[in-house]
C-alpha cells in the first residue's frame, strides 16, 4: 500500500512492476540480504541492483521499511542509491560488475583462514532487460567467470509497455540462460507463495560454479483492476480502484503512507542481523590486519580511494629525444607503470587488447585457471557489456579504477553506458584507440570521424586527445585524480611525429595551453589549435609560417571541457579574443 | 589460392576466416544460392550477408569466380555489395531485415497460384558476431517471426583477435539459438567434407516454421602455418608459407591470381541456372500482372522507388487555428497519412509505439496470426536490432521505406547502426521522440540533452528538429525525397505552443529560413535562432523585444546539414554576417 500511496501522491510512477514484485522484494530485504541501515556503506554488505529501474518505487519502499534514513515518500530519491539504471539491461551488466569485483577482490585478499570479501549480489530485471543485447552479453560473461554469488531475479510478468510480451517475444528465456551456463530455477509467485522463492534462494546459495537465474512468474499491477495487463505498467490508479485494493488486503487504515508497526519490527530483525554481521566482519578484519599486514594495507587502500601517495611519480616521462610512438603506445606504457602503484587498476578490452595496448603485463587474466585474481579482464567481443560491467566496479569499491578499451569507432556500441558512468559518478577510464582516419586498411566503417563531437557533448565526461607521450602521461594523471567522473582517452593507431618540444604533462589539467609562439612581446597574427595526432601538423605549419615572417601561436586543446572551466583571464591569455585568425586542426568532424 | 594471392598483393587483409570458410562459401555460390551475375539486381535472387565483414576477401573471391564483372583482385571493392558490415553483429540484423522484407512482401503479394516473392537469405557470422548483443536481439526476432527462409551459418573457428575463444566464451551457442527458437545443426567441416553441410542446407530448406542455424566447425587460416590460431586472423603470410600452402594443394602454377578454367565453368553452371530462374520469374510476373493488375502495380512501385506521383499531397496541412499538439503528435498524423499512399512505408517501435505515436492504424502487426502482411513491426525492447533490421529493408527493395521509433535518449543503443545507414545509403526514417528535458517524470537517464550534437556529427544523416505541425510535415517530405540517406526526426513529448505564424513546410528543405522579422527595410539588430520546441520561445521573445522597439529576426534552423548546403548568398540572406548579436535557443548541449 506504500507503493500505491506513493504513486497516487506523486501523480506518476511505475507501480505495476512494484506491486507484482512486492513480496519478492520484501522477502529479499527481510530474509535474504545482509545490510546494515545504520552503516549503509559497509563494505561487505550484499549488493542489490534494480535493473528494471522504472520500478524504483519498490526499492524506495523497501529502503524505507528497512529504515534507511534519507528515504522520503513520494519524493522518490535516496542517497543510498549508488547507481542509475533505467535504460533497460544496464543494471544486469552493473550487477555482473559488482559480482566481478567481489570475486576478484576475494581471490586477491581472502586467505584460507579468513575471508574479508564475501557477499552476494542480487539483481531484479524485467522482460525488457532480459531481451536487450547488453544483458545477454553480460550474462554470458557472468557464467564464463563462474560468478556463483550472483543471483538474477527475472520478474516474468508477461507485459511490456506496448502490451503482452507475446507481441514480440517467443524465446525460452530460461533455456537461453541455461545455454549461457547459468543455474536456472522457475518459481510461480503469482499466488504470493514465497516458499518456492525461498527454496530457489537456498539453491542459489548452495551453487558454487554458476550464477543463478530465478524466473519468478508474477502479476503486474497485482490487486488493482489493471492487474495482469500492460495498462498497469505506469501511471496512477482511479480513486475507487485504490479503495478496492485496500479493501482486498483488509487495509482498514484510511491514512495514506500508513505502515503497520509490526512490519518495521520485522525488518528491524534483519537490520540487527546485519549489524551483528558487520561487527563480525570488523573482527575478521582486525585478525586479518594482524596476520597479513601487507595485504591488509593494500585492501584498505582499495576500500578508500586506492591511491598510494606519490602514485603519479610512476608515470613515464618522455622528451623529444625518445623514439617516436603512437599515443596508444605511450598509453600502454603509462597503464603498465600505473598498475604497479595503483592496486585498484583493473580492466580489459573487448578482444582488442594488443591493438589497444591495454594489457597489464604479468598481472594475469581474471578467472583464468592460474590467475583467479588476475587484473586483466577478457571481455570478448562485447563492448556494451564491458562498459556496463565497468560501471559496477568503482561503485563496488572506491579504490577500483576500471579501464575499458576498444576502437573509438566502437564507442557507439557503449554510448549509453558511458553516459551512465557520468550520471552515476563511476570513474571509468575509457581507452579508445584508432581515433580517426589513420587506422590502416579497415575503411570507413572503422574510421571514427564523428565520434569526438558526440562524446564531447556528454556532460561531465573528460575527453582527452593527447598529442604525444608527455600529454598522454598528463591525461592519465588528470583522469585518475578526477575519479568522480569518467575519463576518455582518444588515442592514435599511427605513430605521431614524436614528442613535441612545447607540450607539458602538467599543462593537461588546464585542458588547453600554449605550445609554441614566436610572437615575443606582441600578440600572434595567427593561432593554430590542434589536438592529438594533429598537433604536430600545427607545429610543422607554424614553422613554415614563422620562416615567412608570421607571428604564429600553436595551442594544444587536449581537453575541451577542462579548458572551458578555466578562468576568463586564462582563456583570454591562451586565445586572445582580438586574434581572429584561428585555424583548428583535428582529423574529424568540425562540429563544435 | 586467390585469397592468399590477394592478401599478399594488398599487403593486408583478413585471410584467416576466408581460408577457413572457403569451401563453405564456394558451396553456397556453386550449389545453393540463386543469382544471376549478368543481372545482379534481379529482385527474386537469394540474398547473402557476410556479417563477419573483415573476411570480405572471401566474398570478393566468390563474386569473381561467379563472374560478377566489376570485382577486381586486390583492390577489394565491388559495386555488387549493397551494404557495409564490419562492426560485428550488424550483418546478422541486416540479414534478419532482408528475410523480414521477403516474408512481408510475400505475405502481401503472393497468391495461392503464383509466388512473385520467394527467395532465401544466407548470412555468415563469426564468433564475434555471435556474442555481440545485437545478434542475439535480432536472432530472437527472427525466430519470433518464424523467418524460415533465413539461414545463419556460424563460422565456429574457435579464435578471435586476442586468442582462443576459451578466453572469454564458454556458452553453448547452439543451445542458445535453440532457446531462441531456431532449428540448429552442427557440421564439422574442419576436414573439408561438404556432404554434411549439404545435408544441413537440405534440412534448412525443408524447415517451414523456424530459421536455421548451421554451426560449421572450421579451421582459421587453413593450410597456412598459422592455421588454427589467432595469429591467422589477419595479416599477410611469409613467402615460404605461401609456397608451402600452394604445394599442399598441388597448386603448381606459380603465377599469382591463377584460376583453373574448370572452376569458372563450374560456377557458370550455377549462373546459368540463375539466369533460367530469372526468366521463369519474369514469366510469373507477366502472369501475375494479367491476373492481379492492381497488386502488380503496387508491387512494381515497391521494386522501384515506392513513390506514387503526388504522394506528398497526402501530408496534413496545419495552420495557427488548429489545436496545439506535440511534434510527436503531428508526426503520428503525418505517418498515418503517408502510409495510405506509400505502400512501402513499414516500421515500428522498440516497445514504445504509443509513446512515439509511430503506429500505422489499421495496417496490422507483421506476423501476428491475423496479419502476416502487417506493416507495423513489433520490435520489443530491442533498439539495436531494430536499427540493424531497418537497414536491411530498403536494401532489399528500393520501395521499402522503413521507420524505426524510440526515445531520442535510446538512440545511443542504435548509434552504430544509424552510422551504417549512412554508409550503406539505407534510407531509414528514425523517429525519436521525447527529444529533450520535457519528458515528464523519468529524470536524467531519459533526458537526451547531448544527443543532437552527436547525431548531427554523423556524415550525411539528415537530422530534422521541427517546430510545429507545418515543419513536421515538411520534414517528412524532405526525408522521403532523400532516401539515399537516412533521416532522423527529433520530436517533442510536450505540446508546442501551436503552429507558428511564419513557419513553412516548404522551407524545411532549405534547412534554415526566416520565420519572422520586424526590421522592414533595415537589417535586424538581433537574430534569435531556434529549433523544435524552442522556436516558439524565440517567437515569444521576439514579440517582447519588438515591443521594446528592437529590430528582431527569428530563424528556424530545422536541419543544420541542409542549411549548410545552401548557397553562400542564401545563408548570408538568412544570417547576415554583419549581425553579430545572435542567440541560439535549443534545450540541449550548445556544442556546435
Biggest chain pair interface:
A-B, 87 and 87 residues
Supply the helix-strand structural class of chain A. Answer: alpha/beta
Main β-sheet, spatial strand arrangement of chain A: 9-8-10-11-13-12
Count of folded domains of chain A: 3
Given this structure, which CATH class of the largest domain in chain A is correct?
A: Alpha Beta
Query: What is the CA-atom radius of gyration of chain A, in angstroms?
Result: 27 Å
CATH-level-2 architecture of the largest domain in chain A: 3-Layer(aba) Sandwich
Count of DSSP-assigned helices of chain A: 21
How many E strands of chain A?
17
The portion of residues assigned to helices of chain A is 25-40%
Instruction: Assign the CATH superfamily of the largest domain in chain A.
Output: Thiamin diphosphate (ThDP)-binding fold, Pyr/PP domains
Low-confidence spans of chain A: 72-78
Q: Quick one: overall form of chain A?
A: elongated
Fill in the CATH topology of the largest domain in chain A: Rossmann fold
Mean pLDDT of chain A: 94
* Largest sheet descriptor of chain A: 6 strands, parallel
Strand-residue proportion of chain A: 5-15%
Write down the oligomeric state: homodimer
